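Re: the request from the purification team.
They wanted to know what the chain is likely to look like in 3D before they choose a buffer screen. I agreed to run a prediction and write the result into the notebook, where they can find it.
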Amino acid sequence: MDRPTILLTNDDGIGAAFFHALALACKEEGFYVWAAAPLGERSWIGRAFSRHRSVQVNQAPGPGDQAWDIDGTPSDCVNIALGHLLPKRPDVVLSGMNIGYNASMPLGLSSGTLAGAIEGATWGIPSAACSLDLDQETFEVIRHSNHLCPKSLQPGLQAACRHAAKFARQLVGVPHSGITVHNLNYPATTLASTTVERTVPAHLRFGTLFQPGNDGYTFRWNDGEELSGRKDTDIAALERGSISHSVLDFSSVGHR
């Protein structure tokens, strides 16, 4: 296998249009693409593993060169793929393209997309996560039919996927130590010429994410409150129309 290899995963499910667009961009960038993704949406699940049940794996028709749908979490998918499915170690692990942004520290800790990349990094493989920022109305439309992408959004999605694939190509052969993940967040209006800013995760405070109802409490999104006031955060970059690139070094947590 002369081509560089990449393992793709996500948390929106193997049939998601954004996932297929990313796989196509990676193939066009010259990668041999393995895809191992959840059977359905597994977002907001963080770094969860299916400890109390068996996980089913099936060969899938796509996307990429070889694909598997896995009835588990993004972390399950990457762990099983690296440990049992792939014939060799991939050069890069790339998770996404997520439906909606994964900016700020609280979302980074909750994201299944980030978790898939983190699992790759724990194996010593260069890893990245990528997400496309959407307004709430567009997000809801795509979330309820994530196998489709509106025509108006396709140019931005394709440009974001091409950038993510090119970025992944730059990671091939780069020595990797610790648990470091590149977190890329793209505006919906991404172009080939869109500025890339190095950023830090925004410090958001969401308060409650649940509302009471007749059958208990149900999840309800809010935009949160930005606490730092900094101009170099991932969310601030997206608001300026830039691509946000944060480097998340989990190895440094707890170090003086």
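For the purification team: The chain has a mean pLDDT of 95.
Please add any questions underneath this entry.
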